[in-house]
Amino acid sequence: LDTLQGRVQIYSFLPGGLKVNDVPVADETRRLLERYSDYNALVSNSFADAVREPELAARLAGELEFKPENLENLIVLDYQGRRMAIPASSLAAAPDGRREMAGDGRGVYDGENRLTQAIMHLADPRVPTVVFTYGHLEMALSATPFPERSASRFARALAGANIRVRQHAIAQAGPIPDDCEVLAVVAPRIPFREGEVKEIRRYLARGGRLLVFA
Hints:
- The strands form three sheets. The chain has a four-stranded mixed beta sheet, with helices on one face. A four-stranded parallel beta sheet has the order 8-7-9-10.
- The two termini are 39 Å apart.
- The protein is built from seven helices and ten strands.
- By secondary structure, it is α/β, with parallel strands linked by helices.
- The chain is globular.
């Protein structure tokens, strides 16, 4: 929070009493966000129960240029024009094995970790890039008549998290770009050529990261 250079507006659309893995995430999140704003006045909070306060939720959705029906169970962070949406389901972790063996099936509130990471990501001026390989009949990044062969929802989720998405055909375009944070290979149906594999190995050797869906 000390690194913020401008205002962070946090919109919470969690229904009152919402629980995830038996964790009261709505109550815990409200307390957490109030702690953030108490610590740094650059953090502003807006709360709207999308179920019980539809008019307020609609007004806040209008500020975000979102549709109200798409905001239930979400927290949206806005920082200098960059936005990230956090689903309520990610605010509570499942119980660990030791607690389950002891008969305690309650989850653990993970909102502070999740929301702090989101603020850090938004405050970082760099925009990370995920590069998808192309040319091997990989899943399409656009919607297709065959949803099982489309990664469009995944690509949209990345874009919604302020991550740049683009495609790269190694055989035609050459080495993997230097600004590639993660190289994604999404269910190819044609094998990579030997030269392409060498380029991927060079990318990994210089510290690159590879995400493979097989």
